Amino acid sequence: MVAEAGVARVEAVARLLAPASPQLLADRVLQSRQDWKFLLPLDVLPELLERLADDHAVLWAGSAVLARYETLYFDTADRRCFHDHRRGRPRRFKVRARTYADRRVTMLEVKRKLCSGTVKERMPRSFQDHRLDWEGSRFVATHSPLHPEQLRPVLANQFRRLTLLGVHDAQRVTFDLALSFSEGDRRRAIHGVVVAEVKSASGRARTPALQAFAACGLRPTRMSKYCVGTALVNPEIRANRFLPVLRTLSRLEAS
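Now predict its structure.
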């Protein structure tokens, strides 16, 4: 009940922000960008939104400001994508099928993490079609060194996302709430914690969004929802690299 009340308060504050126009949305796609991620308690988010209000517009999902997302990640049997991230490989890849439930849209996505930033490639799919069929396999092979025939669905996650678009700066700010992960019959929800991300085309370290985070005492952290979710539902998998963020999650949930 406490978490639901917190989400309701966030939604009420977000509704006060100016709505993003279709043109602003088109200008803020940012498939190539620099990213900064943050973990914060849910009760800090309303204050942060108030600090962001003058320089950002909120993206509506139909009649809601909190959009529903569903993601299915693919990896090899030996979890190459997971371990490449765990080992800190400077060039790594992630394959996922993401459904934007409110818009009834599903995309197959390949994310490339390079030294210069993150690049995301997308291919439209039929709504809620998460298969890696021939067409999808060709897309994955085109945009990554992964062998599609070796990929299998592994981790699923669901969350609600609030998205802000920079009015003057080419950036997006996303806040993911009510996250849950599942793999087979293993499930884990994260309570009272927000995963935030500032995505910037310029890569500048001083933007209105990043200054607002700093003003709230928030510092960037290294986090991958796929890797953290995998570690949470598979505690037997080696995940020493992610222990600091897992401890932070545990501390924030307990606060």
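The chain has a mean pLDDT of 92.
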